[in-house]
Design goal:
It catalyses: 4-amino-4-deoxychorismate = 4-aminobenzoate + pyruvate + H(+). With 277 residues, this protein is an alpha+beta fold. Helix content is 26%, strand content 30%. The chain has helices spanning 22-26, 44-57, 66-73, 147-158, 201-212, 224-228, 260-276; strands at residues 2-5, 8-11, 29-37, 40-41, 83-90, 108-115, 126-132, 163-168, 171-175, 179-184, 187-190, 217-219, 232-237, 241-248, 251-252. Bound molecules: 4'-deoxy-4'-aminopyridoxal-5'-phosphate (PMP). 4'-deoxy-4'-aminopyridoxal-5'-phosphate binds next to helix 5 and strand 13. Residues 33, 174, 177-179, 198, 200-203, 236-238 line the site of 4'-deoxy-4'-aminopyridoxal-5'-phosphate.
Length: 277
């Protein structure tokens, strides 16, 4: 496969970066994951908005204009396929290892494209566990520094679960690599945006679909207690879409089957994807 690195399109095995890259030494960088359906990038302006917000938060000037990104990423797509672009920008290669920002260095820009492989068993629902949210205070930045997320996800996988649902001060924040929704007393609820969660693009699409289809929803905090008795729990992300959780901490969610609100939203999401591509 061909990848993009600093202005060039190269075979994957020829794309090389320095060991002094600050992404490698410090995790000093940010990323985006952008899905493409039938070969067309989905919600690109929203992904670029979030990319620019992440860059601003880490005080890195955007190496390209908004208009340039599409032209850089589109050559990586295979026509007609469902794929996703991984785009990473680090602060660049510094002359030496020093925490403070180096002067006059160029960011490293890397992008690759991979097929979207639907999560097996998604339509029958997955298991999740709740874990203490051990991440840092700036979870709204899509930072490449993912050690806490990785340890949390692995803890879930070790217990036969698909995702770790994170809990901070008695309230649910999000999954290790996903946003969370719950149906509580007939209302679709997701935690409000803030520094505790990543502002998911899939999350916003779902809220938009709820609004336009008269599905009652609210952006509100969800206590762990409320989650334990939720009618439905979903996890959302660009590559996995909307995953129903049917078992939480070894207890069934409702009757242990994906619920009616998920059925409806899943259908609306598929129609919305088709209409966009
Ligand atoms: N939260 C976290 C921590 C994530 O890593 C992700 C993306 N994998 C999401 C939420 C979902 O965001 P999006 O819908 O934009 O993929």
């Amino acid at each position: 496969p061909t990848v993009y690195l600093n202005g060039q399109y190269l075979p994957l095995d020829q794309a090389k970066i320095s060991v002094l890259d600050r992404g490698f030494l410090f995790g000093d960088g940010i990323y985006e994951v952008i899905p493409a359906y039938a070969g067309r990038l989905f919600r690109l302006p929203e992904h670029i908005d979030r990319l620019e917000a992440s860059l601003k938060s880490i005080r890195l000037n955007s190496p390209h204009s908004r208009e340039q990104w599409a032209g850089i990423l589109e050559p990586l797509l295979e026509p007609g396929q469902d794929q996703y672009i991984y785009l990473q920008i680090t602060r660049g290669v510094a002359p030496k290892r020093d925490h403070a920002f180096p002067e006059h260095i160029e960011p490293t820009v890397f992008a690759m494209c991979s097929p979207i492989v639907p999560l097996s068993g998604r339509d029958s629902g997955v298991k999740a566990i709740t874990l203490d949210d051990t991440r840092w205070a700036l979870c709204h930045i899509k930072a490449i520094t993912l050690l806490a997320n990785i340890l949390l996800r692995q803890n879930a996988v070790d217990q036969g679960c698909t995702e770790a649902i994170l809990v901070k001060d008695g309230y649910v924040t999000e999954g290790a690599a996903s946003n969370i929704f719950a149906v509580l007393d007939g209302i679709l609820v997701t935690p409000p945006k803030g520094e505790e969660i990543l502002p998911g693009i899939t999350r916003d699409v779902i809220l938009e679909l709820a609004r336009t289809n008269d599905i009652p929803y609210s952006e509100d905090i969800i206590s762990l207690e409320a989650l334990k008795t939720a009618d439905e729990i979903w996890l959302t992300s660009s590559t996995r879409e909307i995953i129903p959780v049917v078992e939480l901490d070894s207890e069934p969610v409702s009757d242990g089957k994906p619920g009616p609100v998920w059925q409806k939203m899943h259908q609306l999401y598929q129609e919305f994807k088709k209409a966009q591509s």
